[in-house]
Write a structure and sequence with these properties.
alpha/beta; four-stranded parallel β-sheet
Length: 153
């Protein structure tokens, strides 16, 4: 069977988004046409959003079979900068303000962004590189995805 990785990227998931993630994960788990792996990739740079804690709390209410099936990939701006040091230079050239933590600040009429907002391919590549490292340490001799589907919710 073909091996498919489904990666859903989130930043600040709502309750409705968590319901969708649970439903998509269940669909992937039950699929017999392919061997599916389901990942939730979350940018945890903005600690005040408590994305990690909210994901873990929501998943704690999921059935055991689903919790063991879904895998989390958590990253932040430091992971991006470590993997891609040139991003420090690129941040200065962006047309929108990029600062650590991003968000909305008093007296500012527009949103401020952090690295996760503009460097999607880099964040996905961090996941893919980490996937190779995780699999090499497991009982699977070589991981190979025939397809990777990336969604953002």
């Amino acid at each position: 069977a073909k091996r498919v990785a489904v990666l859903v990227r989130v930043h600040d998931p709502t309750h409705a988004a968590m319901d969708r993630l649970r439903d998509w994960a269940e669909d992937c788990r039950q699929c017999t046409a392919v061997q599916a792996d389901f990942w939730i990739s979350a940018d945890t740079t903005w600690t005040h959003l408590q994305t990690r804690q909210r994901l873990e709390a929501a998943m704690a209410g999921w059935p055991d079979h689903l919790r063991s099936f879904v895998q989390l990939h958590l990253y932040d701006r430091n992971d991006l900068l470590q993997a891609y040091p040139v991003l420090v230079e690129l941040m200065a050239t962006l047309w929108l303000p990029v600062i650590p933590g991003g968000g909305r600040y008093r007296g500012v009429e527009f949103d401020l962004r952090d690295l996760g907002w503009g460097f999607h391919a880099e964040a996905i590549n961090i996941w893919y590189r980490k996937l190779g490292g995780l699999v090499r340490q497991s009982a699977i001799p070589r991981h190979r995805c025939d397809f990777v589907w990336v969604f953002e919710d």
